[in-house]
Amino acid sequence: MYKSFTMELAGRTLTVDVGRVAAQANGAAFMHYGDTTVLSTATASDKPREGIDFFPLSVEYEEKLYAVGKIPGGFNRREGKASENAILTSRVIDRPMRPLFPKDYRNDVTLNNMVMSVDPECSPELTAMLGSAIATAISDIPFDGPCATTQVGLINGEFVINPNAAQNQISDLKLTVASTREKVIMIEAGANEVPEDKMVEAIYKAHEVNQEVIAFIDKIVAEVGKEKHTYESCAVPEELLAAMKEIVTPDQMEAAVFTDEKQQREENIRQIKEKLEEEFAENEEWIGLIDEAVYQYQKKTVRKMILKDHKRPDGRAITQIRPLAAEIDIIPRVHGSAMFTRGQTQICTVTTLAPLSDAQRLDGLDENETSKRYMHHYNFPSYSVGETKPSRGPGRREIGHGALAERALVPVLPSEEEFPYAIRTVSETFESNGSTSQASICASTMSLMAAGVPIKKQVAGISCGLVTGDSDDDYIVLTDIQGLEDFFGDMDFKVAGTHDGITAIQMDIKIHGLTREIVEEAIRRTKEAREYILNDIMTPAIAEPRKEVGVYAPKIAQIQIDPSKIGDVVGQRGKTINAIIEQTGVKIDISEEGSVSVCGTEREMIDEAVRLIKIITTDFEEGQIFEGKVVSIKEFGAFVEFAPGKEGMVHISKISNERINHVEDVLTLGDKVKVVCLGKDKMGRISFSMKDVKEQTK
């Protein structure tokens, strides 16, 4: 039965149609926010997937280019693989939804969001986030929701709820917050050094709006929600856990995991598994559950050690950071490099500089962003965690980590006018034991400075974890979590920023939300840790950006020309500009506004190209002196090319102070000569003299 529900959200109408389309999905919400239209569906398999120890949730965000009136490029003229924005949006939808499904649920679930129309006033990403929550809440899929999501901007010191595309362009904050009825469950932010107190205020401003949306969703569920279906639990039997503790005592498990050496801990656990497999070899039901049972046993042991005994697996204090090290210039010949090490997490970032024409072109639904000048890429090879598997290119996690570091560094980058380069940083994970994304921010900051990029301030990142007990006030926040504390803990709260404020946040949790006290403590802890990393580790390695780019980096000169002269520089079918490029070996980019960037590795050739461009674009005046090449000889004189595509004529009478009968008596093709401009002749051609050069230079 078709029903439509509406509410006013941030001054625009949100409409949810249920039962109108996609009736065979477990749940479907046809979302309209302004003229933005998204079809959100939730589907689940009838039975659990066999042989897995995780919840198989897939989240898709499909950008249809017809939504903005475009036909896709390429030979097929079809949408191809998901864009980076689509992948990042899928991750933002996934993070608050995943913790709200039952932990022992193993049925495949897919949340699909198809963007069918885009209104610049209403974010399709936000619409999809709300759509997934509504589609799942009204479906028969077990789900402890609803949750709601709100975006917050900051313009001239004032918060803007669900900003439109134009507002996002000038906002100092791009914050996305998801909430349950009581708590915040997901935070993602990019910010222009927003102070910690202001960030907390923005988070809870979004939380307030989320409560209004949740009340709206509750109304929809009450009217059209389906009864949740029963499912086959995949929880480890309590009998198996009890039997394990008879064989491996809690003290023995604590001794196995209490080490800061990841390899040693993994070896200890491997031996425990072997022992249990021998003991339960004849129990076919239990033998296949040992991996999950040992995981659960480890998890309970680590959580008890931290929460009750205040002991961390590597022996650190609750607020203590692992040993840190920073160095630069570890890779020769690249434009910039740096390495940052935190315990068993090690990242090397390499910076590459290029002309602005090498900026990444974007083909998506955002009309305001067609290119990206700064690119941060993150790689996570299997050897970094001691595993062996073939490389299949970056996955969603790698793309997400790269985008987080990129978002953290964008606020401190120089403008194109200050530094006319496209910039790429690549973070290679050499070793991983937790929080590599934040290490990549530290390494990238130093790499950019080593490359001579005049960033405004240093940026550092750190992550906090959390272990909770039975009540809201029974918890411990951990500074600088390692891998084990991430796996078995409840939160990964990543914060990056400068001395003056936050530039990026990404928060993942495994529980049903955080209290305000936990959020504030995590932000305070990351601030303290960030100050230490900036002052005591990164600054001693490199205190400020180098004054010039490296010897192997391209050099760029910029000049401004009259936009009406662009055609003169380019020439017919590109003949003039190609001649300059061939002659000097440089790369030339010209903007519509007349900004010319000349890029090359040899300063002399760059200067020569700039000289030629200035000659071409300067109005000729009598008395100007040029050096050129004889390109044509006629009976009445010679034509001299003084810049690519630019020629002037030297009449035979102006070649020499002595009378000559034939031009060839003095000049041959290819001769280089100095000439002085005499103005233009009756035919409008530039007229030159060779014999008057000396008089002009006296």
Strand and helix map with partners:
Layout: E1 3-9, E2 12-18, E3 27-33, E4 36-48, E5 57-63, H1 84-97, E6 107-117, H2 124-138, E7 148-155, E8 158-161, H3 165-170, E9 173-179, E10 184-194, H4 196-224, H5 238-247, H6 250-257, H7 262-279, H8 284-287, H9 290-307, E11 324-328, E12 336-342, E13 345-355, E14 360-361, E15 371-372, E16 374-379, H10 396-409, E17 421-431, H11 436-450, E18 460-468, E19 475-479, H12 483-488, E20 491-497, E21 502-509, H13 516-541, E22 555-560, H14 566-570, H15 575-584, E23 587-590, E24 595-600, H16 603-617, E25 625-634, E26 637-643, E27 646-651, E28 672-680, E29 686-689, H17 693-697
Helix pairs in contact: 1-2, 1-10, 6-9, 10-11, 15-16
Offer a quick outline of the entry.
This protein is α+β, with helices and mostly antiparallel strands and about 700 residues long.
List keywords for this structure.
698 residues; alpha+beta; Ribosomal Protein S5, domain 2; Arc Repressor Mutant, subunit A; 5 domains; eight-stranded antiparallel beta sheet; six-stranded mixed beta sheet; 17 helices; 29 strands; elongated; transferase
Sheet/helix structural class: alpha+beta
The N- to C-terminal Cα distance equals 95 Å
Number of strands: 29
Strand order of the largest sheet: 8-7-9-10-21-20-18-19
Overall pLDDT: 92
Percent helix among the residues? Answer: 25-40%
What is the makeup of the main sheet?
Answer: 8 strands, antiparallel
Describe this entry's structure for a reader.
One of its GO terms (cellular component) is cytosol. One of its GO terms (molecular function) is magnesium ion binding. This protein has five domains: 3-150 and 199-224, Ribosomal Protein S5, domain 2; 238-307, Arc Repressor Mutant, subunit A, CATH 1.10.10; 324-494 and 516-540, 2-Layer Sandwich (Ribosomal Protein S5, domain 2); 555-617, 2-Layer Sandwich (Ribosomal Protein S8, Chain: A, domain 1); 625-697, OB fold (Dihydrolipoamide Acetyltransferase, E2P) (Beta Barrel). With 698 residues, the chain is α+β, with helices and mostly antiparallel strands. The chain contains 17 helices and 29 strands.
